[in-house]
Amino acid sequence: MPPKPYTIERIVENMKRNTIIDPITNCWLFQGASSGPTGHCKIHFKNHDIYIHRFSAYIHWDFDLTSEILILHKQECPNSNCWNPIHLYEGTYSENTRDAIIAGTHNTVARLPKTHCIHGHEYTPENTHINKKGHRKCKQCHNEKERARGQANRDLYGGYYK
Known about the structure:
elongated; Homing Intron 3 (I-Ppo) Encoded Endonuclease, Chain A; 4 helices; 162 residues; 8 strands
């Protein structure tokens, strides 16, 4: 006997069974499979993998799953696996990018110009050297490294060494 087809009611029942409600944020946190580092969860419906928050819009707002419109999480909802319809809204790619930048989760945030070197020294005009390739180098780190190298050579060879 073939398995019963998945009806919307069965899928919603399964979603509810695999959901934890956060008492503080009132997020409906789906505990199913997530897709990569973003934490967005997907379910399988009509031979397609669909993001849980998009499916939530489908069942609560009669949202067209083939639409190019995005379903986004409001700023006050920090959980990408949340499917509470009160925490969602229809939006555009621009709005999604804006929200991600504000939340600090957009990939360009990691590429913003750094204000300090990896050792915590501030990149100021006085403390920054631009090499031939256009890369910034911290002068303070360079000087400390050269001092340590000189001291190591003096210790190795005895006395003055440059």
